[in-house]
Amino acid sequence: MSALVQKYRNMVLVGLFFFYLGCVITLNFVNTECPASSTTGILESTVNTEVEYIVLVLSGPQNEVKRDAIRSTWANFVGNIITENNVRLYRWNHSWTEPKKAQSFAKILYPIGVQGLSENQLKKISNENSRSKDLILLENLHDSYENLARKVIESMIWLNNNYKNLKYVLKCDDDSFVRVDLIIKDLEAFAPQMNAPEISTYVTQKNVESFFYKGLYWGYFDGRARVFLNGKWEEKDWFLCDTYLPYALGGGYVISQSIVKYIARNHDLLSVYHSEDVSMGVWTAALDGINRVHDVRFDTEWKSRGCDTNMLVRHKQTPTDMFEMYRTLVYSHGKKLCKTENKLRKSYQYNWNVLPSMCCKQNQV
Description:
- This protein is 30% helix and 18% strand.
- It is of the alpha/beta class.
- The chain has a single domain (40-358), classed as Spore Coat Polysaccharide Biosynthesis Protein SpsA, Chain A (Alpha-Beta Complex).
- The longest helix is centred in the first third of the chain and has 28 residues, at 2-29.
């Protein structure tokens, strides 16, 4: 009996030895490195080499109606940019009846901070993302006005990690109506110099001897804005000067990949202020070779200046406003943005050759 026990004991020990040996060999051939932890998530999380343009729409968790208004209106105008002989061209290509043509080189994404959301809120966001596949879920960010600048930083990190051939990012808000097709058209044709006669009526930039630029920062700039000391826009930590540094207003502005990379790689060194557009002005202030371009077609001030067909961005728009402009554009085959053009406030040409406090008092139009 003892011999039988000894026999099975030896068999068990031999089996355990070969099991252990097999595990060691397997581990030597299999990569067991754990994926790096991430603060962000999205259904599409692999590195994309096709996308060159991102429209980053800042939107709160509760604003699904606004996001759906964008998806149903101006987001579809990406299809007006077509590729022929490896050249991107603008051609009105949209109607009520034709199916929407998806483009692989441009995406519209909505970063959402999900930290602290209830189970029902998370389920609703998840259901929305399942059908739209265009949300960037920022897991370690509580979504609030105070965290908007941090939200932009987290988004830049995610974009830099996931879109290796990115050229430009248009940042806007979920109450902005954007002619994304015309913005891409101008970027393809004129960026980063933005000095072509075709757009000279609308843009102003600092005169430089060299036209070799390392990046682009394009929008409607202000350099004389006084610092808010109380209220919603209060900046308790501001100490740089009596006014904000020149910045493009946050209803819509464009930055190049070089700026995206800079923010992503240096995020832990950057000062963060309540206003994300003010923060962007500070982050880019010391960067050399960035072409800063002021454009009156960006209607991005605290209150809309009215409606003009040439406008590229119209801030402070409701979903109803968006559907009205969308219908007007479709019925006019892209030639008319406004059902009735009107001017509520004057715009200004930014004077880059004077001190910032004097930037915007002259040449009002």
